Amino acid sequence: MVLYLITIFVGVALVSALNIFFNPLYQDGWWVYILFTLGFTVVAVIVDAIVAIVIRKMPERWFQQDKGIFKTSERELKFYRFLKVHKWKDFVPELGNFTGFHKNKVATPFDNEYISRFILEARYGVAIHFYSVPASFLIILCDWRMYTGESNLWLTIALPVAIVNAILIVLPAFILKYNLPRLIAIYNNNIELEKRKKQAEK
To answer: How far apart (Å, rounded) are the C-alpha atoms in residues 26 and 193?
Structure first.
């Protein structure tokens, strides 16, 4: 979480500074750029929250099959290995506090009820993060003066904020997609172990 907060702070400071020094739109009020940068950042967070709330309200049955965006192909796994997800995944904040289920580690690997819930929560997370990426660019529309050609803040502030937000959002999705095949493998292995146990008891 600290790394994310630092990234957001540096991003806000950098976007504000570049606009203060190079954007002539508000020559007599440099502080306006700081306010707009903070404002667009807050709106981006609100958009993320709305997407998360909407998706969490969707039926669980929509997230119980290994298909679509929830399915991780071998080529996709190679991409995540290329990005070395396993090395930096622990530095990305896990927001299980909001759902009461943490996804940063497998606490009880032999409990299939727990693993099933883990898979479900991971798929919810994948959907939330992936759909939040395009939604985050909606903040560009908040620069109401661009429609009359009187503002370029949609380009110099809103777009950079949306890009940073999208990057911070997509990283947890990469981690979840990277972990899902392992979770499914654990789930299936537990079923096989249970079958063998029952056969041995006969």
So the answer is: 68
Helical (H) or strand (E) element with 64: none
Other CB atoms within a 10 A radius of the CB of residue 140 amount to 17
How much is the CA Rg of the chain, to the nearest whole Å? 21
Amino acid at 185: A
- pLDDT tens per residue across span 129-139: 999 999 999 99
The SS3 assignment for 144 reads helix
134, amino acid identity: P
61-72: pLDDT as tens digits: 999 888 899 999
Query: 3-state SS of 44-90?
Result: HHHHHHHHHHHHHCCCHHHHCCCCHHHCCCHHHHHHHHHCCHHHHHH
d(CA 114, CA 75): 28
Looking at this protein, which amino acid is placed at residue 167?
I
Rounded to whole angstroms, the Cα distance separating 33 from 38 reads 9
- Give, as one character, the DSSP assignment of residue 5: H
| Per-residue model confidence (pLDDT) at position 96 | 63
Q: What's the rounded Cα separation, in Å, for the pair 195 and 129? A: 36
